[in-house]
Amino acid sequence: MESEKFIIGNGFADSKETIDVVNPYSGKTVKKVYRTTKEQVNESLNYLTSAFMKFRKVPSYVRAELLEKVSCRISERKEELAKLITLETGKPIKFSRIEIDRAVFTFKTGSEEARRIDGEVLPLDQLRGTENRTGYVKRFPLGVILGITPWNFPVNLVAHKLAPALAAGNTVLLKPASASLCSGIETVKIIMEAAKEAGLDFCPVNVVTSSGSEIEEFLADDRIKMISFTGSPLVGWGIKKKLSRQKIALELGGNAGVIVDKSTDVKTAAAKIVTGAFYSAGQSCISVQRVFVHNDIYKEFESLLVDSSKKVVYGDPDDENCLAGPMINETEAKRAERWIHEALEAGGKLLAGGGRKGAVLEPTVIANAPASCNVNSKEVFAPVLTLQSFDDFEKAVAEVDDSEFGLQAGVFTNDLKHAMHAFENIEAGGIVINDVSAFRVDSMPYGGLKQSGAGKEGIKYAIEEMTERKILII
């Protein structure tokens, strides 16, 4: 098996060591990738610092053209890239295709936003002695951005680091997750090709394949001006502690709650919640995890939900009908299985699923598990959903909010007063009405509160994070 090279400087590089990429469904090594050395990371930072001095002066129309070309090339290679995602991560193929469509949109939006980075003109004659003064505010790129991405959306979350950074004129050192290295490398290959087509004699993005621990010593490096990280809260907040003066954006975990009010369409809510909880084996930080259902409709809802959960196609990610593929590895599947057993021992009732074979965990529904159980209090990141009933909407809102996380929440209701109460009282980055917490459009502001992160993604909003305002006073 030929090993995949990474990207340093304006070309490809290798090393003496390799990393195995293992397909979680088959358990077989499907790719080998060269491991970046510390010396090569240092070389890349020197290169990107130098490249930034050129890229920051590239006109916005050229940056827009670059990102447009990337979007088009990804679209042309949709099936190939989707199959690569499924091969590396076990994501069901239909969701891998959706992810590529989203990445096409993310880079396209980046192209459009590159032309819309605006500033302000401020009247400064507001006190005696400030007559005839005007301020001109402009946003400037920061420099080298370290983008650290997870395996669960290995192309689109790479796009969310690269598109706004490049639109603003920054250069990027990308460190993809070890489980999905080839998806990250392939995306940057496309950028390298597009950069040449756009007339650039350098590539503004490099890819390193070092482990997280090997990157640690560079976190506070003065050459890095910002870190944009998507991953677990433990790692993300740990990175923040190690920084010196760098800016940071953290998109971390969640244990999303969804409320089903008595005024809603029960069948629609149940169908959406099954998909929102179990797609891609629940391995999304906004997957539905905790569901609170009004007493008046609870029995009907539970029956519909359990019936639908038992019909979910799971297992083989190459099956076109598969909703829930394998978890990323057997270790994680065993951890989730252990949490299920803990919840049942604590008094929860198993309504569906609960079985495991290798890295494949059955779509699981548990009723009445105590709030203190891991399946409720932590991020389960697995095809596991818990059910509780409620009789007071405001108390249900309080239960959803009773979490260390605050990324997104869903509320099914046709009562405007209830919708607004949820919006005002659930401390989360997004509240979705009449849909599940897993809803996201890639252009919207996206990011959590509490342990779920700091800063916002969504191209326009990420550009604000990745630039610095300066004022010229005349």
Domains, number? 2
Unreliably modeled segments: none
Q: How far from one another are the termini? A: 63 Å
Mean pLDDT across all amino acids: 97
Fraction of helical residues: 25-40%
- Number of extended strands: 24
Shape summary: globular
What Rg, in angstroms, do the CA atoms define?
23 Å
The main pleated sheet reads as: 7 strands, mixed
Identify the CATH class of the largest domain: Alpha Beta
Annotation field: number of helices: 15
**What is the CATH fold-level name of the largest domain?**
Aldehyde Dehydrogenase, Chain A, domain 1
Strand content: 15-25%
CATH superfamily of the largest domain: Aldehyde Dehydrogenase, Chain A, domain 1
Structure classification: alpha/beta
Strand order of the largest sheet: 14-17-18-13-12-20-21
CATH architecture of the largest domain: 3-Layer(aba) Sandwich
